[in-house]
Structures are given as structure tokens and as C-alpha cells.
Amino acid sequence: MPAPINRVVRVFIASSDELTPERNEFDTLFAHLNTIFEARGISLKTEKWEFLDSSAGPLHKQEEYNRVLKTCDICVVVFWQKFGDYTKAELDVAYNELCAGRKPTKLYIYFKEPGDVSAEMQAFKESFDKEYSYGHFYGKFSTLDKLQLDFVLQLERFLHSNLIKVEDSQVKVDQLVVAHLDNIPFAADNERYRELREQLQELNEDIADLESSAPLSADKEQRLNKKKQKRNEIREKLQEHEQLLLGAAVRVAQYTGERISERMKRAIAFFNEGKVSEANAVLDEAERDADEILRGVKELKAVGKQSVDELLVKASYMLADEQYPIEERIEKTHNIYQKAHELALECNYEEEKLYKLLYEYCDFLVEYAKFNDALVIAKQSLELSEKLYGENHPNTATSYNTIGLLYDFMGDYDTALEYYNNALAIRKQVLGENHSDTATSYNNIGLLYNVMGEGDSKIVLEYLNKALAIRQQVLGDNHPDTAASYNNIGVVYRTKGDCDAALKYYNKALTIKQQVLGENHSDTVSPYINIGNEYYDKGDYDTALEYYNKALAILKQKFTSTHPNVLATKQCISECEYMKAKNNKYQ
């Protein structure tokens, strides 16, 4: 049964006839997007000139266009070489309505480049910033992929669907491919991205050559395996870099339609050209400003708010800037978030934007095991969420869950259970039983009961199997969260001493994660460790070490040497090597 439509988003598209191919591609894109969003209760309706001509009736066509435009939520205007009066008129109407606080509430303007533009078009582009000074809401594109990606990022900001992802260099909405990073300048012109792509292509060619010369000698077989291992490593690095680049692009899209500084424009321009380090260098100025502002914030509140925005952009860029080692990137990013947080509190930063800042800051702290700092930020986030959205809201439930997770990590299980139960109660009431967030709550409570040793394993498995059933129904069997449920159920069977059952579930989890995320993805670490533990218990130390070392190699790529997961894995390897040596000694 299709989901009931509870929201209709109307999009007006204006462009000249010379851009008919782009408009046709937009038709196709919207048709696919509408299928995706209708399944989630959102209907996308497009209004274009060719649909309006036949219904203009006795009114002048331009008047009819204007009437329809004022009913739309979003207006998209695309220019290239010509400067048509109709298109300019639509832009002016949309701009005036936007400034007045009426519909359309979002205005996105795109200039196609390159091209021999008319004198009128050139004059319009040169005067654009002065004539339309409401905010930064235009972009440039030379490929259809760039146009589609820019629009989809802005649509995501409008709908908050969390459906955008990058896989194998393709940007997708759900499973719909909207752009390939090779056609997007911020990636295609990024030195690190090109380097990884070239390395991957070279390895693929070498592997294909070796495989075509079968049967292989022992020496060639060894070379082939080494190259496949190297390919997996490069794939993982490429995927991580793509995620960071897309994350930075999502951040930039958040400022579309807002007034931003000239410095931000320069940084964004560098990023869009694939120059992450240059963008970072521009925003070094923002950090220096932040230090100054913290000393005199009362006189510089307006500049302070812009600096917060710039620092958040810099936090995204810093994690993607591989000129620094990972330890330094994490430390620098932490310092940037601290400055942004302190400055936001001092300069009366908008509360909804402050909530997003707290959420992102807390997520960063949890990711890099800074639990005490994260707990402080998570509690501030909870307080603000209750103020902004109320006690029974998904955002409030997320804050409860995060605080529970932190107390869980820190060993305060009773307090963790209290927060987990608060999150579960809200999610069941607001989101319903069959929702992935509700499954997360069941999963967390089940694992906590297992650690606490309270109740028998039937109660623990009841919670974990509920989570698994929901995830299978909502997300499907081949999803990382479903794999996590299999892994967690394996943990319970290990607690019960049922090694064979534990291995069965761990291997299910590992197989799904390898298929969906890749063999060397950071989410495969948990099943690698757990499988290693089972072989350790069996006394098969060689196999245990194989899995432990796989986990450690992945962790070293993402975390510092002092991260708890890295230290714990090293301890597993040390104990395993000791037992192996001891066992060999007495044989």
C-alpha cells in the first residue's frame, strides 16, 4: 500500500528554449525523485512554461506564469547565453516574493558555463550581485551532473530526508544516481581524489592482466593477492575521501539563500574547484577572527555569527584535508568545534542553528571517543531540543538515546537504561513500532541488558530480535543496520557460551557489511573482532590473529593510536600472541 501523501512540494522551473535538453533531463530527474519521495509521503509537483501555455486562457501568459509561481514552494531559474524577458520577469517575481516572506520560500539560480553569452546576458551577470542582494543563492554549472547535484543538495536541505549518499563515486538519492563525482569539479579537480582514482584504475588493469594469464604460477598468485589487497585499501580510502568531499558539499549547500561573507564565497569557490587546501587556507582567517571575536564579542556579534558558520565549514574541510595526519586533523577539528560552540553561545546564534551545531559537535566527539566532552554537549542538545521541539519529538528522543549511549560507554548502566527507555517511549509514540529509530532503541536496550547481566538471555534476545525484525522489514536484509543486529545477537550467544551460534551470526553480519560497505570499511571492525574472539576461545590463535589484524589495520586508518578501539584491539593481539607462544612452548 503506498504511503499517504501528507506534504506537496511545488517547484516552478523557468529557463529559455536553448536549455530544453536540461529541462528535459530535469523532467526525468523529477519523475524519479517523485517516486522516491511519494513512498515517504511527499509529492513533488513541477510547473513549467510548456505545461502552462495551454491553460493560459484569456490572461496574458506572463500573468498566468506569475500567478502559478506564487503558489510554488521553490523556484528554479536557469540561464545560459540568451537573456529572455520572460525568464527575467519570473526571477523578479520570485525574488520580490521571497524578500517579502511569501512563496516561493526558496529561490535557486543557475548559470550554465561556458558559452558565448549575449551582451544582455553578460551585463545581467555582472550586475547580479548588486541587483539581487538578498543572499547567496546562485550557482554555476558546466555539466548536467553538477546542475542536478546542486539542486538535489538544496532539495535535501528543504526536505530533510537524509537520503543522499555516495557509493562508488556516484552520488545517489536512495538508489537513484544523480551525479558521478568525475563530472563534479570539487571532486574531479581535487588532487587527492584524482590520485586515488588513478591508483584504483591502475590496480584494476594490473589485476585484469594477471587474471587473464591463468593458470597462475605461485609467484603470480602471490602478486595478484597483494594487488587485490592493495585495491581494497585504495577503495576504502577513496570511499572515505568521497564521503568527506560530499559532506563538505552538503555543508556548502546549507548556506544557499543566506547572506555570507566574501571570505566564505572565496572558500566555497576554491572548494568547488577541487582545491580543499586553498579553501582551508582562506578559512584560516576565520579562525583568527574567532580568537579576536571571543575577546570582544559584544561589539562584533554580527561578524561573530558569520564566523560560526565559517568555522563549521572549516570543520568539514579540515577532516577532508589529507595534508595533515589523522591525529592532527582530529585535534584541529576539535579545536574548531570548541571555538564555534563558544562563539555561538556568546553571539546569540539562532537557536535552531545552535541545535544543529550541538548535534554535529556531539557526533564528532562520540566518533572519536571523547565521551566526557560529548556528554556535556549532548545534555545541552537535549535541553535545547525540548525547548524548540517539545518533549515528544524525534529530535528529543535522539538526544536521550545519545546520552544513554554515552553513559553506556562510561559504564553507568542504570543511568544509561533510564535514557534509553525515555528514547524508546518517545519513538514508539511518535514514530511507531515499525521505524528504524525504534529498532535502534530496542537494540541498545537489549545489548545493555546483556552487559548488565539482568534478566535471562530470553529477555535480551527478545529486544534484539525485535530490532532485527524491524530492520529487516524497513531497511531490508542487506543493510548495515540489519548486519549490526546479526552481530549483536551473536554477542548474546557468546555470553551464553554457544560458540557455533555466535559465529553463525557474526559471519552473517560480516558478509552483509563486506557486500554493502566493502571488506575494509570501518563498520566491519566489530564482526572481525568478534569472530577473532571466538577463534581465540577455541584455541585457534592463528585464525584469531588474522581477524584481529584485519580489524587493527582498518582502525589505524581512521583513528589515532590512543583511541579506545585501537588500544583494545592491540590488547587482543598481544594476548593472542602470548597464548600462541605459550602453547607452542609446551607442545
Give structural notes.
With 587 residues, the protein is an alpha/beta fold. Helix content is 69%, strand content 8%. The chain has 24 helices and eight strands. It has a five-stranded parallel sheet with strand order 2-1-3-4-5, with helices on both faces. The protein has a three-stranded antiparallel sheet with strand order 6-7-8. The longest helix has 36 residues, at 218-253. Mean pLDDT is 84; it is low at 50-59.
Let me know the number of strands: 8
The chain-level structural class is: alpha/beta
Separate helix tally: 24
Q: Please report which band the strand proportion falls in: under 5%, 5-15%, 15-25%, 25-35%, 35-45% or over 45%.
A: 5-15%
Looking at the structure, what is the overall shape?
globular
- Ranges with pLDDT <50 over ≥5 residues? 50-59
Fraction in helix: 55-70%
Please outline the major beta sheet: 5 strands, parallel
The rounded distance between the terminal residues' Cα atoms is: 65 Å
Whole-angstrom Rg: 27 Å
Rounded mean pLDDT is 84
List the strand order in the largest sheet.
Answer: 2-1-3-4-5
Explain the layout of strands and helices:
Blueprint: E1 7-15, H1 20-38, E2 42-48, H2 49-52, H3 61-69, E3 74-79, H4 85-99, E4 106-112, H5 119-131, E5 138-141, H6 144-159, E6 164-167, E7 170-173, E8 176-180, H7 185-188, H8 191-212, H9 218-253, H10 262-272, H11 276-295, H12 301-320, H13 326-346, H14 351-367, H15 371-389, H16 394-409, H17 413-430, H18 436-452, H19 457-474, H20 480-496, H21 499-517, H22 525-538, H23 541-558, H24 564-585
Parallel strand pairs: 1-2, 1-3, 3-4, 4-5
Antiparallel strand pairs: 6-7, 7-8
Helix pairs in contact: 3-4, 8-9, 9-12, 10-11, 11-12, 11-13, 12-13, 13-14, 14-15, 15-16, 16-17, 16-18, 17-18, 18-19, 19-20, 20-21, 20-22, 21-22, 22-23, 23-24
